[in-house]
Design brief:
The protein has 143 residues and is of the alpha/beta class. It has helices at residues 5-21, 31-37, 54-67, 86-93, 128-142, and strands at residues 26-27, 44-50, 76-81, 105-110, 113-118. It has a five-stranded mixed beta sheet with strand order 1-3-2-4-5, with helices on both faces. α3 (54-67) crosses α5. Belongs to the bacilliredoxin family.
Length: 143
Amino acid sequence: MSMSFERYMLDMIQPMRDDLTRLGIEELRTPEAVEEKLPNAKGTALVVINSVCGCAAGQCRPGVAQALQSEKLPDHLFTVFAGQDKEATAKAREYFAPYPPSSPSIALLKDGELVHFIERHQIENRSAADIAADLSSAFERYC
């Protein structure tokens, strides 16, 4: 039995994608989808740069899930997958200046402008509860 590397990777990362999409977060898989959604997202938009790394699984995705239990929430929820949907991720990162590429990471935009950003180094050494509290505070302030 033979399986292509691409098929293998798609099967392996699907549960990592599902961690966010089952929360109602919309995947943007192409640069065109990013260009259609991010500049036109009126109000606030959460953008999660997903990743296969352990800190994405242990802290980032669970932290996002906890934060989405907050009273105030962003108007739009999006995700791109670093290392998988490379062109879409690169296009989304154009909205996160002056921050360098970082995955996982979490951005909050208001009317297309970056207002809050959590970089990888702020994820990998913190708990999911800390990340959720950080996001909830940003939601309270901007949403």
